[in-house]
Design a protein that fits this description.
Layout (H helix, E strand, L loop, with lengths): L6 E3 L3 E9 L3 H4 L2 H14 L9 E5 L9 E8 L2 E8 L4 E8 L5 H12 L3 E9 L4 E3 L2
Antiparallel strand pairs: 1-8, 2-6, 2-7, 3-4, 4-5, 5-6
Length: 135
């Protein structure tokens, strides 16, 4: 007699995309501040980091229209990334996780760290057709 594997459809992931405008330019241009944001966000959302954040400057001479910082922290649940453009006070942030998380807490912490005057947000579900194998 063969054993049939049970499967269950569930949402695979939760994705919050934030575009923040007119931010504190000192925070946007600080490797330390962006590192702190990524590292601390993992704890705020009760996730599990796979490594410390990776944060780098974008060369302002070679790419003046993109001058700022890019960073990413890999988490077991997926990843959190940030890209800042210091001259315009803009940043884009993505928080993607297969674990449900507190979106309001993520937005509040982002506002505290970067002090944007305007926030555009999009939240969407990922992998709506993904089938999770179960035993």
């Amino acid at each position: 007699m063969s054993k049939k594997k049970n499967t269950e459809r569930k949402i695979f992931g939760y994705h919050l995309a934030l575009d923040i405008y007119d931010c504190d330019k000192k925070a946007l241009d600080s490797i330390e501040r962006c590192y702190y944001y990524l590292d601390t966000m993992v704890d705020h959302l009760k996730m599990n980091r796979q490594s410390p954040p990776f944060v780098v400057y974008t060369d302002p001479i070679k790419y003046p229209d993109k001058a700022g910082i890019s960073g990413w922290v890999p988490i077991v649940e997926s990843g959190i990334s940030i890209h800042t453009i210091t001259p315009t006070g803009f940043a884009s942030i993505d928080i993607y996780s297969c674990k449900k998380y507190d979106v309001e807490k993520a937005k509040k912490f982002t506002r505290e760290v970067f002090k944007p005057k305007k926030v555009e947000e999009k939240f969407f579900l990922r992998g709506e057709e993904y089938i999770h194998p179960s035993s």
